[in-house]
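Let us work through a complete example step by step.
Step 1: write down the sequence.
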Amino acid sequence: MVESRRDRLRAATIEEISRTARRILVEEGADAVTLRAIARDMGMTAPALYRYFGSHGDLLRHLVGDLFNELTATITADLHEVPKGDLSGKFMAASRGFRHWAREHRREYELLFGAPLPGLDHEEKMDFAEECARKFGATFLALFVELWKKGPFPVPADDELDPGLREQLRRYREESLGVSLPLGLIQQFLQCWIRLQGAVSLEVFGHLDFALDDPEPMFELMLAATAADLGLEYVPPGGKR
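Step 2: predict the structure and record it as tokens.
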């Protein structure tokens, strides 16, 4: 179906609004991303923006979706640079790619993974932001499952898991992931994600500054330990094993 001129103009305006919102985010922080500020920057009136976004929250969630899509595309591109059979290389590329994007886009990372702003509360219905966030998560889950299937590492049996955690993992598997994977594998996936995001967040938010001027060596230690848990070979930066 061919887009009408009106649809093309609307899409172009939404894209300009998103670019403007992101620029304000980067330059002034998340609190400055208001409809009034965006309208002023674009030479529009704030009420005119409501033709494109129903509320400030809708605008923020659209921006969040765009950022998750960019991050997913970045990680995917990094993975495509690694030979298909190089499982260790894929793990290193995805982990380092996530850290690199976060360091290069600190304000954007804060919006995605910091304290939620008003208007970014979880919604019952699936929306653009939630859909894009799940696609991002699915990229890492797919890589994790590939690592497990092609180079199996041991995972605890369901009855070996903490009972309280087991029920939470089952709910997460059924309601959020929609996959038929062992609960022990999902537990390990979450453990690895907590390590990765925790290390990156501490660095990006400046919570390692009290001790480290350069957190990269500590990040690499975490990466090496996680790789060992997954039966992978640690590949140092630069790719020389």
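Step 3: interpret the result. DSSP finds ten helices and no strands in the chain.
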